[in-house]
Amino acid sequence: MKNISRRTFFGVTALAAGTLATGRAAAAGTHVPAIVVGSGYGAAVSALRLGQAGVGTLVLEMGRAWTTPGPDGKVFCDMLNPDRRSMWFRDRTEAPVDGVLFLDLANRPIRRWAGVLDRVQFPGMGVYVGRGVGGGSLVNGGMAVVPDRAYFEQVFPTVDADEMYSTWFPLANRALRVNSIPEPWFEGTDHYRYARLSRTLAGRAGYGTRLLPNVYSFEHMMREERGEAPKSALGTEVLYGNNHGKFSLDKGYLAQAVGTGNVTIAPLHRVTRVTRTATGYAITARQITEDGTLVAEKQLTCDHLFLGAGSLGSTELLLRARETGDLPDLPDEVGEGWGPNGNVMAARNNNLHEPTGFKQSAIPVLAITDPVRDVIAEIAPVPAGIETYVSLYLAITRNPNRGRFTYDPAADRLDLQWTRAQAAPSVAAAKGLLDEVNAANGTTYRYDVFGGGKAFADDFCYHPLGGAVLDRVTDGHGRVRGYPNLYVTDGALVPGSLGVNPFVTITALAERNIARVLADDL
Ligand code: FAE
Question: Where does the Glucose-methanol-choline oxidoreductase N-terminal domain lie (predicted)?
Fold first, then answer.
C-alpha cells in the first residue's frame, strides 16, 4: 500500500468490486443531502470535498464503472484492436485518425455497448468526450498544463489569479499526481523518436518546444520499456482507456471520495431532468444496462445539486430546464460562450531519411511553441506499429470566435450553433506555423489521415468549454444565478478558450469554488 492511504485503498477496492453500482442510496425516491451529476474533473473534486466535509453525497454517472476485465483479461481495449468497449453505443468506431495511405486502419465495426469514448456530433463539430466513472480522465492524453497567467487573467478577469497560482493550481497538480518525463530518458528512448524528430524539424524553422507534464506515471512508462511492467502507453493504449500507468480520477479523487464513507457512485445513471422542490432539487435519472436496456427511471431529491456533466452535459440539463419551464428563471446566458479551445489537428509528411520510428508512446509529451501566433502544437503519436512518416499535431490556438448551444424541443436535445467558418482563425494560425516547418524541411502535408482528403481537421475537438460561464450564468464561484444551492462545477464554466489543455484548470477552479461553497452554503 505504498503511496496510497487506507481510505483511498478502500475506495479503489470498492470501485473495483463494483459495490457502488446499485447501492441503496440510488433507490428511487431517496433523499440525499447532495447530488453530483457526472464524474469528470469538476464532479470528482466536488464529491471528494463534500465527502470529507461529512456531507452525504450521491454521484450519478451515465457511463459504466471501468473496473471489470473483459474476456481478454483487460478492462480497456487498445487503439489498434477496438471492440465494444471502445465507443458509446456505436456500430463502428469513430477515431479521429481514420487511416494512413487511405487504408482504413483505425476504424472498425463494433457491437453497440456502453463504451468509454463518445463523439457527440453537431452539424459543424464533433465533440469527443469520455463516458464512465472518471469522465474525460479515462480517455484523455493526460497532459496536465497550467495556463499562461496573462491569458488566464484575460479569460477570467474576476478570478483572483494570485490565489489560483499560489493555492489552487498547485493543489490540483498534487491531487492529480502530475509528473514530468525525465529528460535523459526522453532524449534516449525509441518511443519518443517521433517527438524528437518534430522538435528537430521545428527547430530548423526557428521554433522552440516545451515538454509537457502529465498524469501518466513516467516511472511506470520506463518500467514498461524495460519489460518490468505491463505495456499501456507503450502498448498503443490511450483514447479507449489505459489499463496501467495513468492516474485517472477513478484512482484518485473518486476513490478517495468513496473512501470518506460519505460518497456513493451510481454508474449507468443518466440524469435527464432537474426540477425544484420546496427545499432543494429533484432529478430524474434513467438507469440502463451496459447493452442500453432501460432498467428504471428514478426520481431522487437533494438539498444541494452540483452539475459536473461537462460542457455539453451540464449545459443540456440547464437549457432543457429553462426551455421546458422546470427552472424558468435561469439566466439568458445559459448556452453562450462555447468554444473548442481553438483545437485543430494537422498531419505532415516527413522525408524518407527522417523516419518517426514505429515504436511510439501513446502519451504525448512535447509541444512546439509559436509565441507570435499564440499556438502550441502538441506532437501526437501515430502508434500504428509501422513506419508511417507522419507527424501529427494537436494545435491549441486562441480563437476568439464563440458558439452557442440551443435546445431543440422536438428532438429533446442540445444543438450547437458553430460553423466551420468560425474555426478559420485556428486553421490559419496552425497552418502559418506548419507551413514554415514544411518550408524549412522541404516537406508537405498529409491528406490521407483524417478522411475527406484534408490536412487540417477543424471539424472535431477534444476540449469543449463553456455553456454555463463563470460570472455570467453563475456567480464568481459557480453558484447558478437565481437558483440557490444549484452549482456548475466543470468545463461549462470556462468561456471557450484556455490556450492549453483544460483539465488542470477545471480541477483547480472546482477546488476553489467548492472551498467557498462549503464555507458559506453548507
Ligand atoms: P468530463 O470529464 O467530460 O466529465 C463529464 C462526465 O459527466 C462524463 O463522465 C459524462 O459521461 C457524464 N455525464 C454527462 N451527461 C450526464 C448526465 N446527463 N447524467 C449523468 N452523467 C452525465 O467533464 N485535457 C487535458 O487537460 N489534457 C489532455 O491531454 C487531454 N486529452 C484529451 C483527449 C481526449 C481524447 C479527450 C476526449 C479529451 C481530452 N482532454 C484533455 C480534455 C479533458 O478530458 C476534458 O477537458 C475534461 O475531461 C473535462 O472535464 P469536465 O469535468 O468538464
Answer: 130-153
Cβ(42) to ligand 1 under 6 A?
yes
Share of the chain above pLDDT 90, in %: 90
Q: What is the pLDDT of residues 43-93, one digit of tens each?
A: 999 999 999 999 999 999 999 999 999 999 999 999 989 999 999 999 999
Find out whether 79 and 90 touch, Cβ atoms under 8 Å.
Answer: no
Cα(56)–Cα(302) distance, integer angstroms: 10
**Any ligand 1 atom below 6 A from CB of 142:** yes
Does residue 353 have an active-site annotation?
no
Q: Whose CA is nearest to atom 34 of ligand 1?
A: 140
Angstrom distance (rounded) from CA 272 to CA 129: 18
Ligand 1 site-directed mutation target among 462, 493, 509, most atoms within 8 Å of CB = 462
Tell me which residue has its CA closest to atom 4 in ligand 1.
Answer: 40
Q: Which of these, 218, 208, 214, lies nearest to 186 by C-alpha position?
A: 218
Catalytic residue among 61, 463, 477, 511: 463
Q: Which is nearest to 390 in space by CA: 447, 437, 446?
A: 446
Least confident span in 25-29, 285-289, 338-342, 426-430: 25-29
pLDDT band at 438, cuts 50/70/90?
Answer: very high
* Matching residue, cell 524553422: 205
Distance 8 CA to ligand 1 centre (A): 22
* Whole-number pLDDT of residue 22: 45
Return the ligand 1 atom nearest residue 309 CA.
7
Q: Please give the number of the atom of ligand 1 that sits closest to the Cα of 505.
A: 26
Mean pLDDT of 88-102: 85
- Say what the pLDDT of residue 97 is: 85
CA of 41 relative to ligand 1 center, distance in Å: 7
What are the contacts of 21-25 at 24+ separation with CB within 8 A? 21/65, 21/266, 21/267, 21/268, 22/266, 23/264, 23/266, 25/56, 25/58, 25/264, 25/266
DSSP state of 344: E
- Region of residue 316 (left: phi > 0; alpha: psi -120 to 50; beta: else): alpha
| Cβ contact 92:108 at 8 Å | yes
Angle, CA of 477, 515 and 340, to the nearest 5°: 45
Nearest-atom number in ligand 1 for the CA of 63 is: 11
What share of the chain has pLDDT > 70, as a percent?
94
Active site residue 269: no
The pLDDT value given to residue 8: 65
| CA 357 / ligand 1 centre spacing (Å) | 31
pLDDT score of 221: 98
pTM of the complete model: 0.97
* Ligand 1 close to Cβ of residue 248 (< 6 A): no
Distance of CA 245 to the CA centre of its chain: 17
Mean pLDDT, the chain, rounded, equals 95
